[in-house]
Amino acid sequence: MPVSIAQRQAIVAFLKDGLGNQEIAEQVGVTPGSVAAVKAHVSMGTYSESSGSADAEAEVASAADTAFGLERDLQMALRRSIEQLETGLTIIDGDREQTVASGRIDITARDREGMTVVIELKVGAADRDAIGQLLAYMGDLMDDVAPMRGILVAREFAPRAVSAARAVPNVRLVRYGFQFTFEAVTGSHVSGPTATPST
User: Fold this and answer.
1) What is the pTM of this model?
2) What is the DSSP letter of 18?
């Protein structure tokens, strides 16, 4: 079911208040996935207050696709260079998400002391639901793995997520940023306009 303009505006207001996806979904009458899509759109700065209903549907669908792609890209980049996150980490999940009862763990690693590290990635802002998701994954592994800790990686963190993480000493929040590099693929260097000889 498409998200109406009024629902989208309510979602944005609740996000500003720091509510989680599930809470917002229940209050607004949409799915948690729709809330996540609107949240991704807001985080990317592409949300438009003045767009109409058809535009709203297209924006939410586009945001969901973009958020999925960005999280996949973030995961691939981190897998290529896990030491960016923490010195001494090694990936132990066979380079694929590990499936547990609560869902799919983005990355499972081991630190230099031999402790298992569950890593959850969020594009944009992470709320306290993301803390719950990370803890559920850790709980799923507790019978087979000990000791263990978790790292939640996101662009930013809602105040409620930070408060929740403070109560769990084996969970760390890490903010990611972007650094672009550019590499020539074809062509030559042009230093300025080419002068034409006069005749």
Assistant:
1) 0.63
2) T
